[in-house]
Each structure stands twice: as structure tokens, then as C-alpha cells.
Design brief:
CATH superfamily of the largest domain: Response regulator
CATH class of the largest domain: Alpha Beta
Number of strands: 30
Number of domains: 6
Radius of gyration: 52 Å
CATH architecture of the largest domain: 3-Layer(aba) Sandwich
Mean pLDDT: 77
Shape: rod-shaped
Low-confidence stretches: 21-38, 141-150, 157-162, 279-286, 352-361, 500-504, 791-804, 847-853
Strand content: 15-25%
Number of helices: 28
Distance between the termini: 189 Å
Helix content: 40-55%
């Protein structure tokens, strides 16, 4: 083709393209009402991002912010604006954060600021934003939920309606597990500003006690942290609430692990700040290994949408390229920059004119208008984010459900949830949970101190630690009380304060040692009496058994005799009566013998049976003298018989009547300077000296019922009376039938359980003790098992000798004589039947007529 022809072709094609372009533009102008629109490149909008780039969280937020911005513009094209992120390092310093924020606002002309991480830094940045009318969007903090000053240029993308939101969930957890005391540990100063009032508000209607609040400074070294943790052991509290930055927590938890406080029996609760920044699968955070068994709270980010789940996984994979793992903090950073980019596009910050595209003027008045537009646009942002639905309400994200998780190695398991509307889903918390020490036993495990006592019926401790057995009335009562408590109680029995004699050195010292922290127990049970001076050291529950004080004496025991039927007369009187009777009988026989000429004489009959003299008709006697002798003797014998009967009746009546005590009260004991015994190591000694006025020289201590009995029975080095509490005396009387309780009763507080001062368990145990003791049948059977009376009735304390009936032993002198006579005459009768020649013919001759009769 020739050159000219080729040039014409090129000119024709160019003309055709020009005509086509002209037609297209004309059609466009007509369709748009004549308005001319040109496709321009997006306008850069500067946004400052303040992070602590020396921390792992700062780098994670940086990466997630970039990812969020890239994903937003890659899926939302075309846009007229584009964020230009200007990252600045706060170096974890308040002044540095304020300085870089000022530079960003004045020099870089940023339209908004994201961050910083720390709430104390955020307070200064928000002040600058308010002054220059620049909206500040605060990242969810790594620590406290303390809000900076409220202003219309402050937007808080933290998952709370109020800064006490998470503590209401924590209080619900504490109540669900019925933890009686908890120690908050916070990083000072800023973390305590919201912790203390919020926790107080959340727990105001609970019985949980806060015995100590620990403040740890970021600058504390390991020794200072260790000294602070040592203070916790003195408080006997095993549940700790941690509210601090992850940097300080990583140091604290290691010290606690070395101190054995991350072991069995302890519980740790982590606030939302820690749960938000510590990823369950963060292998680079070695501190996770020390957290095994801890509980934590955090916002719920559970999603059933496949696209959200896929995007999370995609972001997590991209972070792995930077050796980082995705956490809730990163999700918030991703969603926050997405919300800001969308708000900038919809806020109308861009002005168009015919020649160029530019931002609004940067004077203060125009910046105020720009800031207000951007703030309104952010407040109207609503979209499903990676961390949940991003919808602001009064400058904050709307509250959502709080999840409760359990740290298990390097993973977290959600075990429950809480929301303001439904409260805590407790049924989930009942699932097996791993607690510190790799155990499923719920902490804390209360240590129940059990002292050994002289009366094993109340407390019987045997064996060697740790294989010891605990039994007795007090142990049974404690177990019954625990059964009726409104909550489960995890406990173990521990022997306390045992000396060489296997007895408590002193109950007063033992109880006060709880206050002095010398005995590591949470409660002391057993035969512990409520006494006024002991209330200075411990708090007592209601008594489960009365323990008033009385005295026991030895009663006379001279009525128990085999010869009681002969006791109405003494042996001399019996001899005189016998002589008179025999003498009178002989006289009558002699007098009647003189009348033997009379064939009707009864002489032979009287010889055979002398008792016929007093049994026959007096008219059968022939001698007048005999008649007078019989009359006189019969009168004397009748009179003696009446006196005998009356005296025997008196003796037998005296046996069934309570004998008066030889010592009736303390005044007689003082007047006679009597010796008094008491239970060794008992508070009764103080009662006898300080209240009853006895001298210490009169008192002698004894350690067992056998020693009591021996002391009362021994005149030399013994005692005249024993003072002790009624439960002990009733047990002693069951083994001492010749002893008797007498005298007035001195009231005491009763047997009880002793708790450290201000223990919240006292009220629960007191109510449970009432339930047990008012169950008449159950408590009656428990008391009968150790021979305790069901009621305090002094008639029950009478001696066994005083109440017993006549027994065969009382006739021990009569039955042998009667048996001898019966055997003798039975033998003679058998000999007569067998016709055996008698050994003594004269005796046989005399007795045969009698036996034949």
C-alpha cells in the first residue's frame, strides 16, 4: 500500500474514534441531566494510628489494621476516598503519645486518630482531639476499662455499655461458686480507678468478702512482686481477681507459679482486658503454661456465618507470616479501621469544583464541622464484623454476651456465658473444669482444724498424719451441718496444735493463733466453748450443744450391804435379845417340868420345840410363873419386832431418796478450804479463779474421767469436788455411780465452731446448725450415741446407787442361813428314810420326833 493511502486510513480511524467518543459523552450528559462527572482517583484522607510498636500487641494491631484497610478497598471499588494511615510509636509513654498525637493533628492534618493502646495515654490524646476537633477512636484497651473524659469527639469501640459491665459477670461467677472471699490484684494507678468502685457495686448484695486489695506497680521487680504475694497467704483467701496489662501479668503469674499459688486449692479470674489480648493458641506467649486452670471473662465473638469464619481464618493465616497469632484485640483493630474507612467515604468530607478535587479547608472552624460530620458517620456505622456486630450506641459498642472460659494448657474452653438479660448460664459452669494443679476439685479446699481432746466421745483423732481418722460427736455434727449448707463445701480435716501428750496446749492460745496466722486452718471445730475473751480472736457460730459449768461430788455408799436385814439393830442389841429369849425359854421349860405329874403337861412338847411356848395358848401352861414370863417375853418380842420393822423401813426408804450433797455451793468450798479438780487446759480454771474467787492453790488439773474418779475416791492427794462443763460431767457420771452433780449451774456460751474474724461462713454455718439441732429426732439419736442426756434435767444426774431397787445381794446374810437349815433337815430326813444309823444317837433321838411331826 502506498504511503498516502495508509495516512488516509489512519486519519479515518482516528476520526471514527473521535465521533464515537463524542456520541458517548453526549449520551452520558443527557442521561444525567446535563451534570458533568469525571472519573477521578480516590482522595487520600490522613488518619493517625498511635500504637506501642515495642509490644507484640502493637505489631498485631498494626498488621490487622493494614489487613482491614486492604480488604475493605479490594471489595468496595470504586471509592472516592482512601485512608492514608500514619503509624506512630507511643513507646508506652504518656508524654510521647501526647506529643505524636499533637504532631499528627497539626503537621499531618489528620482527620481522625486511632488508639493509643494504653488508657492513661488515651486520656491525653482525647483532650487534644477535643481541643482541635479531631475524633479519637480508642482501641479496646489492653488493661483497664477506665474511660477517658467524655467528649463529643471521643468514640470508644470497647464492648461495654458501662465500664462495670464485665465485673457484673465476674460477680455472678463468684456467686455461682459461692466463694466467700476474693482478693483483687490490679496494676496501679489506673487499673484501680474502675476496679474498686465497679467490683464494690457488683458485689454489694453478695456475702463475699474482700479482705485485701493488692496494687502492683509496673516497675516492681520480682522481689517486690513476691513480697506482695506473701501477704495473700495471711488472708486465708485462695481466689484472686487479676486486672492488669498482659506485660505485668506475665511477670506476676510466673512469681505466683514459683510460690505455689497456681497449684491445687487456688482459683484465678482474669478480667476482660487480659482475655482480649491473650490468644488461646499463642505459642509465643509462654505465660499461658502458667495459667493452667484459670477462669476468664471476655466478649462473645461466636459467629455462625461461614463468611465471617472464613475471613477470620484468612486473617489468621496472613498474621502467621509475621509470626503472630490472631486474638480478640486484632479482630477489634480490623473492625475499627473498616468502620472508619466506611465512615470517611459516607461523611462528605470531599469537595468538588471544576478544576480539582480537594479536602475542606483546615482552619479550626472548618475542622470542627469536619469532625462533627465524621463522628456522625462513624456513629451510624453498622455492619457484621469479625469481632461481632459493629454497632455503636452512645459512643460505644452495644453490650453483648460475656463468655466465661477455662484455660487448659494452651487452649481455652468456653464453660458458660452471662448477659444482663439472662444472667449467668450456671448449668454450663457445672461441667468438669480444670482448676490450678490439674484437678477437678473446686477450690478452695477449706482446712478444718481438729484439736485432740481428753474426752474422745466428742473428738477422737487417731493415726499418724496424713493417714489420720477423725471421729466423735463434734465431727458428726460438723458433717451434718455441711450437708444442709445451701452450697457444696470442699474441705479436709487437719490436726492442730498437738503437744507431746496428744492434747491441745491451750484452747485460748489455739484460737488466737488463727488471728496470728500461726495455724493455717480456716475453721476450728470440736469441743470449743464460746467464752468472752475468745471472741477477740475468732468469730463463733451459734452453739450446737449447751456447755454450762457445774460440780460433781462423791456420795455416801454405805447402804449397799449383804447384811442389810440385820442393820436395824446393832450386834450388841441382837445378842441381848437372843440371851433374853433363850433365858426365858429355859425358865419356862424348867417351870413346866415341875408339873410333870399332870398328865396334860406340855413339857415334852416344849422340849421338842421351844417356840411352842410362845405359839400355844397361854392357858395350856400349868405354872403361873411361866404364864407371866411368857406374857412379858411376848410383849418384849412384839415390841422389838415393831421397832425392827420401822427401822428397816427407814433404811430402805433412805436408799431411794437423793442424799444431800456434802458440799452445796462455792461458799462452803471456800469456808472449808476444800480441794477442787478441773479439766486440764480448760477455760474453767479461769472461771474458778476470776469469777468464783477460789485460790489457785486449791485447784488440781486432771485429764480424764478415770483421773476424776480416782481423785474423788482418794482422801490423800485427792479432791473434794470436780468442776467442769456439763457435757463432760454427764459422761463422767455414767462411769461413776457413786458420784452426783450438785450445786448451781454457771452459764456459758456452749460448744461451737470457731472461724477467723469477719468470715462470711459464720452466718451460713449458724443457720445450718439451727437446722440440725432443731431436727429433734436426728439430734436426739446423735446425743444418745455418746450417752448424753437429751435435755438438761438435773434429775438425770442422780447416782445409780440412789435409784436402784433391792437386789439379792441385800439378802446375802439371810439366804445362806436359811439354806443351811434346809439342807440340814433335808439330810436328816433322807437318812431316816434310808434307815442309816445316826452318827450321834442322842441327836437322832432328839430330832426324830421333830422330823416325824
Amino acid at each position: 500500500m502506498k504511503t498516502g493511502a495508509r495516512d488516509y486510513c489512519i486519519m479515518f480511524v482516528g476520526l471514527l474514534c473521535l465521533i464515537t467518543l463524542t456520541i458517548t459523552e453526549s449520551a452520558t450528559e443527557g442521561g444525567s441531566g446535563g451534570r458533568r462527572i469525571r472519573r477521578r482517583s480516590p482522595v487520600d484522607v490522613s488518619v493517625g494510628v498511635i500504637l506501642d510498636l515495642n509490644s507484640s500487641l502493637g505489631h498485631m494491631a498494626l498488621n490487622c489494621t493494614n489487613f482491614g484497610l486492604q480488604d475493605f478497598y479490594s471489595t468496595n471499588d470504586p471509592y472516592t476516598t482512601k485512608l492514608r494511615l500514619l503509624f506512630r510509636d507511643s513507646r508506652n509513654d504518656v508524654l510521647t503519645a501526647a506529643s505524636v498525637a499533637r504532631d499528627l493533628i497539626i503537621k499531618e492534618k489528620v482527620q481522625a486518630i486511632l488508639g493509643p493502646q494504653n488508657s492513661e495515654q488515651a486520656r491525653f490524646v482525647v483532650e487534644l482531639g477535643f481541643k482541635y476537633h479531631v475524633p479519637v477512636i480508642w482501641f479496646p484497651p489492653s488493661g483497664p476499662s477506665l474511660l477517658p473524659p467524655r467528649s463529643r469527639f471521643f468514640i470508644h469501640s470497647y464492648l461495654v455499655r458501662s465500664h462495670c459491665f464485665q465485673f457484673r459477670a465476674i460477680a455472678a461467677i463468684i456467686e455461682a461458686y459461692n466463694w466467700q472471699s476474693v482478693i483483687p490484684i490490679y496494676e496501679e494507678p489506673e487499673f484501680g480507678y474502675d476496679l474498686i468502685p465497679c467490683l464494690t457495686y457488683a458485689m454489694e448484695e453478695m456475702d463475699t468478702r474482700v479482705p485485701y486489695i493488692s496494687a502492683i506497680n509496673q516497675n516492681f521487680n520480682e522481689t517486690q512482686v513476691e513480697n506482695e504475694l506473701k501477704k495473700f497467704k495471711d488472708k486465708r483467701t485462695y481466689v484472686f481477681l487479676v486486672h492488669m496489662t498482659v506485660e505485668l501479668w506475665s511477670r506476676l503469674v510466673k512469681v505466683a507459679y514459683k510460690a505455689g499459688m497456681m497449684s491445687k486449692g487456688y482459683a484465678w479470674i482474669l478480667t476482660q482486658g487480659l482475655s482480649s489480648v491473650m490468644d488461646p493458641e499463642a505459642k509465643d506467649i509462654k505465660v499461658k503454661g502458667y495459667m493452667d486452670g484459670a477462669l476468664g471473662v471476655g466478649p462473645s465473638v461466636v459467629s455462625n456465618k461461614n463468611d465471617i469464619i472464613s475471613k477470620r481464618r484468612y486473617v489468621a493465616r496472613r498474621l502467621l507470616n509475621y509470626n503472630k497469632t490472631l486474638s480478640l484485640y486484632g479482630l477489634w483493630a480490623y473492625d475499627t479501621v473498616t468502620a472508619l474507612a466506611n465512615a470517611v467515604e459516607n461523611s462528605g468530607l470531599v469537595n468538588y469544583n471544576e478544576s480539582r478535587v480537594d479536602l475542606v479547608d483546615e482552619d479550626l472552624g472548618m475542622r470542627n464541622e469536619t469532625g462533627q460530620k465524621l463522628r456522625r458517620a462513624i456513629m451510624h456505622t453498622n455492619f457484621p464484623g469479625l469481632s461481632g456486630n459493629f454497632s455503636l450506641w452512645q459512643g460505644q459498642l452495644k453490650p453483648s454476651t460475656v463468655v466465661v472460659y477455662n484455660v487448659k494448657g494452651l487452649t481455652d474452653t468456653i464453660i458458660g456465658s452471662w448477659s444482663p438479660r439472662t444472667g449467668l448460664a450456671r448449668y454450663k459452669l457445672m461441667d468438669p473444669i480444670r482448676w490450678p494443679g490439674n484437678t477437678t476439685d473446686r477450690p478452695p479446699k477449706l482446712k478444718i482444724g481438729v484439736p485432740k481432746t481428753h474426752f474422745t466421745e466428742f473428738v477422737d483423732v487417731s493415726g499418724e498424719w496424713p493417714n489420720m481418722s477423725f471421729d466423735g460427736f463434734a465431727i458428726h455434727v460438723f458433717k451434718k451441718v455441711v450437708d444442709v449448707l445451701p452450697f457444696p463445701l470442699n474441705y479436709e480435716f487437719v490436726p492442730v496444735n498437738i503437744n507431746a501428750e496428744r492434747t491441745p496446749s491451750s484452747y485460748d492460745d489455739l484460737l488466737c493463733s488463727i488471728t496470728d496466722k500461726n495455724v493455717d486452718v480456716d475453721v476450728i471445730i470440736g469441743d470449743v466453748t464460746i467464752v468472752a475473751n475468745r471472741t477477740n480472736c475468732v468469730d463463733f457460730t451459734l452453739p450446737y450443744l449447751d456447755s454450762s459449768v457445774s460440780m460433781v461430788v462423791k456420795v455416801r455408799s454405805d447402804t449397799k450391804s449383804r447384811w442389810i436385814l440385820f442393820k436395824p439393830f446393832d450386834w450388841l442389841l441382837w445378842l441381848i435379845l437372843g440371851v433374853i429369849f433363850v433365858g426365858a425359854t429355859v425358865i419356862v421349860i424348867i417351870l413346866e417340868k415341875k408339873t410333870k405329874a399332870d398328865p396334860e403337861s406340855q413339857f415334852q412338847n416344849f422340849v421338842r420345840n421351844p417356840f411352842l411356848i410362845y405359839m400355844s395358848d397361854i392357858g395350856s401352861l400349868k405354872s403361873g410363873t411361866s404364864k407371866w414370863v411368857v406374857i412379858v417375853i411376848t410383849f418384849l418380842l412384839g415390841l422389838a419386832l415393831q421397832v425392827y420393822t420401822a427401822n428397816l423401813t427407814s433404811i430402805l426408804t433412805e436408799r431411794t431418796t437423793a442424799k444431800p450433797s456434802p458440799w452445796r455451793d462455792v461458799q462452803e468450798i471456800k469456808r472449808n478450804n476444800l480441794s477442787v479438780g478441773y479439766q486440764k487446759d480448760s477455760w474453767v480454771k479461769g472461771l474458778l479463779i476470776h469469777q468464783l474467787g477460789l485460790n489457785e492453790e486449791q485447784l488440781k488439773p486432771y485429764a480424764s474421767p478415770d483421773e476424776y474418779n480416782h481423785a474423788l475416791s482418794t482422801k490423800k492427794d485427792g479432791v473434794d469436788v470436780i468442776f467442769d462443763e456439763i457435757p463432760y460431767l454427764t459422761l463422767f457420771l455414767s462411769s461413776c455411780p457413786s458420784c452426783k452433780m450438785t450445786g448451781p449451774i454457771y452459764k456459758s456460751g456452749g460448744f461451737s465452731f470457731a472461724f477467723p474474724k469477719n468470715s462470711t461462713l459464720v452466718l451460713n454455718f449458724s443457720a445450718a446448725i439451727l437446722n440440725v439441732t432443731q431436727n429433734v429426732t436426728t439430734f436426739r439419736n446423735m446425743k444418745k450415741e455418746i450417752l448424753l442426756p437429751v435435755t438438761i434435767d438435773r434429775s438425770e444426774y442422780k447416782s445409780d446407787v440412789e435409784m436402784r431397787s433391792l437386789k439379792i445381794d441385800d439378802f446375802g446374810g439371810l439366804f445362806p442361813i436359811a439354806l443351811f437349815v434346809l439342807v440340814l433337815f433335808l439330810s436328816l430326813s433322807i437318812l431316816r428314810v434310808l434307815k442309816v444309823p445316826p452318827i450321834t444317837p442322842w441327836l437322832h433321838k432328839k430330832l426324830v420326833p421333830f422330823s416325824s411331826a
